[in-house]
Each structure stands twice: as structure tokens, then as C-alpha cells.
Design goal:
This protein has 19 helices and 27 strands. Helix 2 packs across helix 3 and helix 10 runs parallel beside helix 11. By secondary structure, the chain is of the alpha/beta class. The longest helix has 15 residues. A hairpin with a 2-residue loop joins strand 13 and strand 14. The structure holds 1-O-phosphono-alpha-D-glucopyranose and zinc ion. Zinc ion binds next to loops.
Length: 542
């Protein structure tokens, strides 16, 4: 079968964002659009002939067609084998695991994560390198540069049934269709104490997991219900749908409303959790209790040695810059290093590869460890279940005990979605312009210690990333951060991150919005966001 060489024109908008290239489905379905980007990836990674690749996605609308195209292009570009999840399904952490386990040169993951799907929704694609992690900025920028000068791509017609396990061929290339769940479930069993969790569930500890009609349904059913014996029905919205049932597959208090109703209702289960479109995010709830992702990372770090996979201790902790400093306090107490990186999981890869950190987390419902090179939703759920089975206390008590020991970092993120790009930029400019006046200023009870535009020098390879968010730090450790999202597909999303620290146990039980109210008012004043955007309230508060 000979490859067709198809002449094409470059697109100017294929720059990957925080996590791969995300666009409306209609854009990806446009002639040559997906093909150009895939060929740009192949050109840049320059994998030697005979290399292997992992391929899968979160099952959203256009997943299957895209897989067909990519299989044809992989064959035409000299790959010897592509390992595909059955029906084109692989959660992001499962794909990361497979890349590592099978020693492939990398993998292509088709997902727009928590963005809505369906014909009018979003689609996305990203390349993960041989370590299983998202391509570093150097590579994503090279792919973008290539996409701006591409003039042809190579493809063969691929007609493979990816619904059936086993091997088949496209030209010279082998397509191996695998069970998307098995390897991942095995990895989880190797890290956590399944027997202990099973006993705890048997003793009456009740859980609910909301798969939000996204990719984790089959994973959660197999692991939580089949292997751990959670009551049938513990996994809800378990059937993955191409449009996620019309929902927004983002596990937070706004979008995981089915679960929230149950966890805040009469006779609520003891533990609730949800994951996102591609299975890398997690939300943890107790009965009538919400655990912020920043706190979750801190709790996992503080108790890691209770889990078999981390019994020997953790090497270090990393968090993205806007994530609260709760984990820093734990790291200090444990005497291990901690790192503050820009937003996006790709910045953790080097630290994990170098053995400098074991646990990583982001305030955006992302937690993970060096077992793969992606954040991992179900892993976080199992970690929590392992800890709760160990301690035999409710989720809320875990947190109260943690705050008592380390202090509480009140935390919240306010998102202003789909605002005109110009207005979003104007807000950022206004904050940046006020830096001179802000230095040392007293704002209500807060005194400004520093303000800057966050930049990061990777301690492993020395690469520098600038323009990663505006920080205003106060003398008592409180912070306000302004950042523009790099994952949206329409308009701009302005994120305002707010954090304050409370060491006094008597004052640790406030509602976060109340505790942060003065900082919220300061953030609005500094940025002029109400005047500039016309928005009086955030679209989403997490
Ligand atoms: C968002 C989150 C970020 C996360 C990314 C991918 O990016 O804020 O922490 O890594 O999604 O899940 P943003 O839209 O802020 O650029
Ligand atoms: Zn995701």
C-alpha cells in the first residue's frame, strides 16, 4: 500500500495551549486541519522508522474518525505499530501508563479534557513523549512552527475495526487493539492496598463516583465495583457518551451537580468523587464537605507513607503557581523539597523524571504522582480511599485534623468565562500597570510584599517560561493571582485566584468565600474587572 502525498496549506492557528491543541469540532473537521497538525507532530518528533505509538482518546464526538485518519497517517509515516484502546478509548492517565509500559516513542491523546463535546463542542489533540508526559514547551512550539510552513502530508487509507481486540494491519503497520482498562487497573493494584479498601467498603463505608458520562466510566466500574466490591450503582453516569450527555464534564461543585446533590442531601454517602472528560481530574467530597484540590494535595503528601506505593516516603512535592501553598507547609514539615511551576502538567515531567518529586498537583482538580506522567483522577480517588480505610475517619475530620496541624490555606478561584479577548487583555494590562504603585501598599488589612509576572526556570534543563500569571503577594502569605486561560476555544477566560492563610484553629471553619471576601474586593478594585468587562460576578467559582 503506497502512501498518498497530499498537498496542503498551513493554518495559522495551530499553536498548542496549556494542554494540546483545542478547537471546535467543526474546525477539526475542516479539510486538512487535523492532518496538518498530525503531520507537524510526526515531522517534529522525527521518530525513527519502526517506532511504536500509543493512540486513544476520551471518546468524544469525532474521536473515532480522527483515530482512523491518524492510523492512516502513522502507517504512511513509517511507524511499525500503533497500540489503540478498544473503540478508540484511553483515559489520559491510562495512555500515559501505556506509553511507559510499552516503551513507545510517545502517544497521541485525543481529548479536550473538561470542555463540552458533541458536534458543536470541542475537540483536542496532544502529543505525549516517551516518558508518558505532555510534550514540553520546546516541542509544542516546534510543532506550531512546523504547522505554519507545512505543505504536504502523508496518508494511506486505513480500514481497521478498532472495536475488536487483537492485531490487524494497515499497510506495513500493525494495529494492536487493547483493553483500555486492564493495564491501568493492574497499575492501581500495584500502588494501593486493595484489600484494606475492600474491607472498609464491606464494613459499610459508602461511596459515589460520578463519571459524568465521560471516559472514566468503564475504569471506575472495573476498579471500584468489580475489584473493590463497592455496591453496584456506586459509579453513576458510567456510560461514556460522545457529548457527555450534554453536560460539561468538569468535576467541580458547579458542573458535577448530580453528585453534589447526593453528597449534600439526606443520608449522604461517606465519600464522593468525580472525574472529567479524559479522566485526569478529580473532585473529592465527604458527606456535606468539599475538599479543595490544593488541600487534597497537601493531605496526600502528609499521609503518603500509609499507601504501599509510597511507603518509603516521597522525594518532593510540586504544585502549579496558582495552587495554594498548603502543600508547601507539608513539604517543609517533612523536610522534603517543594517546587512552584507554571500552570500545566507538562512542567512537572522533568522534576519527576529526575526523581526530584513524587507528588504533584494543581488547584484545577489535578493531582498525580510519578506512577505516570499525567495527572490521574482515579488514582487520587484510590489514594483517598486508601487513607480513609487506614484512618477510619470521615473526610471532614481528615481536613480538620490537617488544618489544626498545618494551618488552613483558604482558597478559591473565580473564573470569568467567554469575555471578549480585548477586555481580558485590558484587565491584565491594568493590573500589570499598577505594579509600581502596589509595591509596599497597604490595602485594608493586607500589605503588599511583592508583585510580579511569574516566570520559571526549569531546574533540570534550564529552560525559561515567562508570562505565566500576575502575582500579588502579601506579607501574611495571602495572594491574588490573575491569569488568562490557555485551554478555552471561544473568547477569553480570566482566572482570579485568591488565597489567605489561617493558623488559628478557632477561625478555620469559615466559608472560603467569606474568609476571602476582603481579598476578593481588593482583586476587583486593582483590576477594574467589573468596569472593563461589565461582569459583576464570576461564571464559575471553585
Ligand atoms: C486549565 C487549568 C490547568 C490545567 C489545564 C489542563 O488550564 O487551569 O491547571 O493544567 O487546564 O487540564 P488553563 O485553562 O487555566 O490554561
Ligand atoms: Zn482532563
Amino acid at each position: 500500500m503506497t502512501a498518498r502525498i497530499v498537498a496542503t496549506q498551513p493554518f495559522s492557528d495551530q499553536r498548542p495551549g496549556t494542554s494540546g491543541l483545542r478547537k471546535k469540532v467543526a474546525t477539526f473537521r475542516g479539510e486538512h486541519y487535523l492532518e496538518n497538525f498530525v503531520q507537524s507532530i510526526f515531522d517534529c518528533i522525527a521518530a525513527p522508522a519502526g517506532s511504536e505509538l500509543v493512540l486513544g482518546g476520551d471518546g468524544r464526538f469525532y474521536n473515532r474518525e480522527a483515530i482512523g485518519i491518524i492510523l492512516g497517517m502513522a502507517a504512511a509515516n513509517g511507524f511499525s505499530k500503533v497500540i489503540v484502546g478498544r473503540d478508540g478509548i484511553l483515559s489520559t492517565p491510562a495512555a500515559s501508563n501505556l506509553i511507559r509500559k510499552r516503551n513507545t516513542c510517545g502517544g497521541i491523546i485525543l481529548s479536550a479534557s473538561h470542555n463540552p463535546g458533541g458536534p458543536d463542542g470541542d475537540f483536542g489533540i496532544k502529543f505525549n513523549s516517551a516518558n508518558g508526559g505532555p510534550a514540553p514547551e520546546k516541542l509544542t512550539e516546534a510543532i506550531y512552527a512546523r504547522s505554519r510552513e507545512i505543505s504536504e502530508y502523508r496518508i494511506v487509507d486505513a480500514d481497521v475495526d478498532i472495536g475488536k481486540l487483537g492485531q490487524s494491519r494497515v499497510g506495513e503497520m500493525t494495529v494492536e487493539v487493547i483493553d483500555p482498562v486492564a493495564d491501568y487497573a493492574e497499575l492501581m493494584e500495584s500502588i494501593f492496598d486493595f484489600e484494606l479498601i475492600r474491607d472498609h467498603l464491606k464494613s459499610g463505608f459508602r461511596i459515589r463516583f460520578d463519571a459524568m458520562h465521560a471516559v472514566t466510566g468503564p475504569y471506575a466500574k472495573e476498579i471500584l465495583e468489580n475489584r473493590l466490591g463497592a455496591a453496584p450503582g456506586s459509579v453513576m453516569n458510567a456510560v461514556p457518551l460522545p457529548d457527555f450527555g450534554g453536560g460539561h464534564p468538569d468535576p467541580n461543585l458547579t458542573y458535577a451537580e448530580d453528585l453534589v446533590k447526593i453528597m449534600y442531601g439526606e443520608d449522604a454517602p461517606d465519600f464522593g468523587a468525580a472525574s472529567d472528560g479524559d479522566g485526569d481530574r478529580n473532585m473529592i467530597l465527604g458527606s456535606r464537605f468539599f475538599v479543595t484540590p490544593s488541600d487534597s494535595l497537601a493531605v496526600l503528601a502528609a499521609n503518603a507513607t500509609l499507601v504501599p506505593g509510597y511507603r518509603g516516603g516521597i522525594a518532593g512535592v510540586a504544585r502549579s503557581m496558582p495552587t495554594s501553598a498548603a502543600a508547601d507547609r507539608v513539604a517543609k514539615a517533612l523536610g522534603i523539597p517543594f517546587f512552584e511551576t507554571p500552570t500545566g502538567w507538562k512542567f512537572f515531567g522533568n522534576l519527576m523524571d529526575a526523581g526530584m518529586v513524587t507528588l504533584c498537583g494543581e488547584e484545577s482538580f489535578g493531582t498525580g504522582s510519578n506512577h505516570v506522567r499525567e495527572k490521574d483522577g482515579l488514582w487520587a480517588v484510590l489514594f483517598w480511599l486508601n487513607l480513609l480505610a487506614n484512618k477510619k475517619i470521615p473526610v471532614e475530620q481528615m481536613l480538620l485534623g490537617h488544618w489544626e496541624k498545618y494551618g488552613r490555606n483558604y482558597y478559591s478561584r473565580h473564573d470569568y468565562e467567554e469575555i471578549p479577548a480585548d477586555a481580558a487583555k485590558a484587565v491584565i494590562e491594568k493590573v500589570r500597570d499598577s505594579f509600581g504603585d502596589l509595591q509596599g501598599a497597604q490595602l485594608g488589612q493586607y500589605r503588599v510584599l511583592f508583585c510580579d509576572d511569574f516566570s520559571y526556570t526549569d531546574p533540570v534543563d534550564g529552560s525559561i517560561s515567562t508570562g505565566q500569571g500576575l502575582r500579588i503577594g502579601f506579607t501574611d502569605g495571602s495572594r491574588i493571582v490573575f491569569r488568562l486561560s490557555g485551554t478555552g476555544t471561544s473568547g477569553a477566560t480570566l482566572r482570579v485566584y485568591l488565597e489567605s492563610f489561617e493558623a488559628d484553629v478557632a477561625k478555620q471553619k469559615m466559608d472560603a468565600q467569606d474568609a476571602l471576601s476582603e481579598l476578593i474586593a481588593i482583586s476587583r478594585k486593582i483590576s477594574g474587572l467589573v468596569e472593563i468587562t461589565g461582569r459583576t460576578a464570576p461564571t464559575v467559582i471553585t
